[in-house]
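Q: I have two molecules that I believe assemble together. Could you output structure tokens for the complex as a whole instead of separate predictions?
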Amino acid sequence: MDPPAKPEDDNGESMTGLTFRRATRADLEAIVDLLLDDPLGAAREDGSRPLNPRYIAGFEAVDRDPNQYLAVVEDGGRIIGSLQITFIPSVSRLGMWRGQIEAVRITRTRRGEGLGRQMFDWAIAECRQRGCELVQLTMDKTRTESFKFYEALGFRASHEGFKLSL
Amino acid sequence: MDPPAKPEDDNGESMTGLTFRRATRADLEAIVDLLLDDPLGAAREDGSRPLNPRYIAGFEAVDRDPNQYLAVVEDGGRIIGSLQITFIPSVSRLGMWRGQIEAVRITRTRRGEGLGRQMFDWAIAECRQRGCELVQLTMDKTRTESFKFYEALGFRASHEGFKLSL
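A: Yes, here they are, computed for all two components at once.
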């Protein structure tokens, strides 16, 4: 994950020409490539072509769920990043909606430029626009370099994230 | 949260006569009462009647989303617990589905009997039936007494859970 952006990056896409848009089926190979190019992803993704059919089924399930937003980030027509937002309704906390951010990836050659900050600024604004009052994510504890990044965005590490593989 | 159940509780609903079912609008007051009767919930829920309209809107959003399962637990026709499962599709990890468990509550008079264990056993089985390969949850770090409960269920505290209030 990138360190916090320099101040001139704070205004996000309007100053940089980045395009954030919903992913389409045609973006799927690029998204899988981004997922693969990651220390944890390398061990659990499949780079073979044609695409593993599981990716296609996964994409279709995301795409037909109106509470999922799988986004790609383009710069000059080239996909340089992706992330997924899940909008979660609930009864608890006065019927609060929350936005959950997952699978944030930036292409290797563009890391360290503050794009991570811009992607989170965009994603948080999307959550706000959808009426969310909380944004949440979990971070693998081995990604120690990301801890301060999230704190700089205003996140608090208030929770333990438990996972159970089935 | 309950401590791990005694061995005789391990077979869940079949041995105990508990009923797990999808919540209906008629259950909403009971669910709000359960949410309120919690150290953290007491500060952020609203027990007024008629129900705060935000709860009704929240329930309706959950109810119309096929990837949400708001469940109530009944014993002899009385609601004694509730929980919410969110089924999350993704492209990452080979298009893996994950189940996310949230807002697990047990009525005050029935705590300490192993019901928490049975509720998780049921919820995990639901996740498996829906094709999830991972179950996840976050736990407020102030709920220190729950840590061992989740570990005993097989969960690993592999992640930091970050939250940002909007």
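A: One point stands out. Confidence is low (pLDDT under 50) at residues 1-15 of chain B.
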